[in-house]
Design brief:
- The complex is a heterodimer of chains A (251) and B (198).
- Chain A is an all-alpha fold.
- Chain A is 75% helix and 0% strand.
- The longest helix of chain A has 35 residues.
- Chain A is elongated, with a radius of gyration of 33 Å.
- Chain B is globular, with a radius of gyration of 20 Å.
- Chain B has 198 residues and is mainly alpha-helical.
- The chains are: A mainly alpha (251), B mainly alpha (198).
C-alpha cells in the first residue's frame, strides 16, 4: 500500500515545516490546497506526523525510565555521587521546588475538598425515590395518595407534601406516607424535617420501606455533616448504593 | 534563576510550565514525573497492584498527559491541575486494567470522586485508532533505530536543538547535518513500514 517511499529532500523539508508549523501563512495555504487534492501527499504527511510523534514519545519514554531509576528507585544515589556534585544543587533546587509543589497541590486539594466532600458525595448519590406506580384505583383513600404521587413524580414536591400531610393527620405513623414525605422533603432540601419523617419509618414495625429509609437517612445525615449517624444508618441498609456510599465514607 | 518560574506570579508560572512541557524541558518533566509518582504508587498498591504495575501505568498516563498538553487537548489552569489530571488519568488507567481483569466487583466506579474531572482524552476514538497503531509501530521502529540516526533525530525533534548546534556537536557543516537528518528519517520510515507488513 505504501509504495510512495520516494521522497525528495525538498518534499521532506516541506512536509516537515508543515508539521512543525514553521510555514508562513501563504506557504501553508498553498500546501493545504495541494493536500486536499493529492492523496499520496496526504499519506506521506500522515506517515511523517506519526514518525515525529513517535520520535518524541519514544524519546520521552526512554527518559521516564531514567527518571524512575534515578529518582524513585534510588532516591539517595544522586546526593552521594561526587561525580555529579555540580548537578547535586540542581537536584536540591528541584527537590525543594518539587516538595513545595506537592505541598501546594495537596493543600489546595484539601482546601477545596474539605468543605464540599460530603456535599459532593451527597450530590453524587442523592436522587429522589422514583415513586410508586400510579395505577388509579377506585378507592377514594388511595386516590388522594396517588394523586399526590403524580405531583411528586412531576417534581412538584411542595404540592405532594401538602396533599400527603392531610392524609398523615389521620395516620401519623403510616410508613408509606412518612417515607414519601421524607424523601420529598429531602428533594426540597428540607433535610431536618425529612429526618423526622424517615425516622418514623425506620422505627416502625413494618418493613416495606425500612431499607430505603435507612439509605435516605444516611444521605440526610451526610448532608448535615453528621457522619457518625450517616454511617450508622447506611449500615442498616442493604441496598447497593448504601454499601458504596459507606465504603466511600470509610476511605 | 532556575527556580524563578516557581516563584513568579501564577500566570507566568503557568505559562512557563506549559511552555516548558511543550518544549520537553527535562527539568520540568522530571519534576512532574517524580512529584506525582508516589501518590499513584500508593493507589495501585492499595488496589491489588505491584510496584511494576504502578510504574507501567504511571508512565502510560504520563505520556498521555504530556501529549494532551502538547496538543492543547488539556489546558491546565495551574500547576496543581496538571498534578490532579495526571493522578486521575493514572487512576483511570489502573481501574480500566482491573476491570479488564475482572476485578470489577471489588472496585466501585464511584470511588473516582474527589476531583473535578477534566475532559478525558485517554481513549482514542475509532477514527484515531489507525493512527495510534501507526504511532506504536513508529515508536518501535525508532526504539530500534541505529546510531547515529537515533541521537540526531532525538536531538532535533525531542530536545529541539537547532540544526546548527547539532552540526557543531557532530563536527560537520549544517548542510550535511540536514542531509543526514533527511536520510535518517527515510531510514526510520522504511523501518516502520516494514513493521507494518509483518
Amino acid at each position: 500500500m505504501n509504495q510512495n517511499n520516494d521522497i525528495s529532500p525538498e518534499e521532506f523539508e516541506l512536509i516537515e515545516s508543515y508539521l512543525l508549523n514553521t510555514m508562513t501563512d501563504s506557504e501553508k495555504e498553498t500546501f493545504e490546497s495541494k493536500l486536499s487534492t493529492d492523496e499520496t501527499l496526504r499519506e506521506k504527511v500522515e506517515d511523517y506526523r506519526a514518525l515525529l510523534k513517535a520520535i518524541e514519545s519514544q524519546s520521552l519514554k526512554e527518559k521516564l525510565d531514567a527518571f524512575h531509576d534515578e529518582s524513585i528507585e534510588q532516591t539517595d544515589v544522586v546526593a552521594l555521587d561526587d561525580n555529579f556534585s555540580s548537578s547535586t544543587s540542581w537536584y536540591k533546587t528541584y527537590g525543594i521546588a518539587a516538595s513545595l509543589i506537592v505541598f501546594i497541590g495537596l493543600a489546595s486539594l484539601w482546601y477545596f475538598n474539605q468543605p464540599s466532600a460530603s456535599e459532593k458525595l451527597y450530590n453524587d448519590y442523592f436522587s429522589p425515590d422514583p415513586g410508586l406506580p400510579t395505577l388509579m384505583s377506585n378507592s377514594n383513600e388511595n386516590f388522594e395518595f396517588y394523586d399526590a404521587m403524580v405531583t411528586y413524580k412531576q417534581g412538584d414536591y411542595d404540592s405532594a407534601i401538602t396533599k400527603w400531610n392531610t392524609l398523615l393527620e389521620a395516620k401519623p405513623q403510616n410508613d408509606t406516607l412518612n417515607y414519601f414525605i421524607g424523601v420529598a422533603k429531602m428533594a426540597n432540601k428540607e433535610v431536618e424535617e425529612a429526618i423526622k419523617h424517615l425516622e418514623v419509618v425506620t422505627e416502625s414495625d413494618t418493613n416495606s420501606f425500612k431499607n430505603e429509609a435507612h439509605y435516605y437517612l444516611g444521605l440526610a445525615y451526610l448532608q448535615i455533616d453528621n457522619i457518625e449517624l450517616a454511617k450508622k444508618n447506611l449500615n442498616f441498609s442493604s441496598i447497593d448504593n448504601s454499601k458504596a456510599l459507606l465504603s466511600e465514607l470509610n476511605d | 534563576m532556575r527556580n524563578s518560574r516557581f516563584k513568579s506570579n501564577q500566570k507566568t508560572t503557568r505559562a512557563l510550565t506549559i511552555e516548558a512541557i511543550k518544549a520537553n524541558d527535562e527539568g520540568v518533566l522530571k519534576l512532574l514525573y517524580t512529584s506525582n509518582y508516589p501518590k499513584v504508587e500508593v493507589f495501585v498498591l492499595q488496589n491489588n497492584g505491584t510496584k511494576d504495575h504502578a510504574k507501567d501505568i504511571y508512565q502510560e498516563a504520563f505520556l498521555a498527559v504530556w501529549r494532551n498538553i502538547k496538543e492543547d487537548k488539556f489546558i491546565p489552569k495551574d500547576d496543581s491541575s496538571i498534578h490532579g489530571y495526571l493522578y486521575t488519568i493514572a487512576k483511570h488507567k489502573w481501574l480500566d486494567f482491573l476491570r479488564s481483569k475482572k476485578y470489577k466487583k471489588t472496585v466501585y466506579e464511584s470511588e473516582l470522586v474527589g476531583f473535578k474531572e477534566p475532559k478525558m482524552h485517554v481513549h482514542p476514538s475509532t477514527q484515531d485508532h489507525e493512527f495510534e497503531k501507526k504511532l506504536k509501530r513508529a515508536m518501535t521502529a525508532f526504539e530500534g533505530l541505529g546510531e547515529p540516526c537515533k541521537s540526531l533525530l532525538k536531538a532535533f525533534y525531542f530536545d529541539k536543538k537547532s540544526m546548527k548546534d547539532i552540526a557543531d556537536e557532530l563536527n560537520i557543516d549544517p548542510a550535511s547535518a540536514k542531509n543526514k537528518k533527511y536520510r535518517c528519517m527515510q531510514r526510520l520510515r522504511e523501518l516502520a513500514q516494514n513493521l507494518n507488513l509483518k
